[in-house]
Amino acid sequence: MKAVVEWQGEACFQAESGSGHTILMDGPPDHGGQNRGPRPMETLLMSVGGCSAFDVVHILRKSRQNVTGCRCELSAERAEDEVPAVFTKIHLHFVVSGEDLKEAQVKRAVSLSAEKYCSASIMLTRGGVEVTHSYTIEA
After folding, report:
1. Which segments carry the region annotation Disordered (predicted)?
2. Is the same domain home to 30 and 58?
3. pTM of structure
4. Which end is more exposed in the chain, N or C (fewer Cβ atoms within 10 Å of the end residue's Cβ)?
5. Which of the four pLDDT bands, split at 50, 70 and 90, describes residue 96?
């Protein structure tokens, strides 16, 4: 896996993935940015949500659950008054919708993502970040 990040001036950087997709990251005005894109740490947090949500949907579909929607709401805490201001806690809350979803299957999918499949989340956990998960099922 490869990526390239190129400075665009001021506090703005454009990242391009090996698959050719780009994302613009920028800093806040008080740090020389113009707020044209997410901060790098926001991008990391969104990546954890994307990785884990992908797993949850994939596992549910493989277990023949009729999932029609999955939203991952993330909240994170960072080290205060420290540099680097690393994540110390991340909570992922999944809101899963579908027809006749079995709670045991949703719980299993969230657990498997957390404990076995989500590379991003597991990498952060191994680095000392407390990562927790919860879920809600909507009809």
Report:
1. 19-38
2. no
3. 0.93
4. N
5. very high
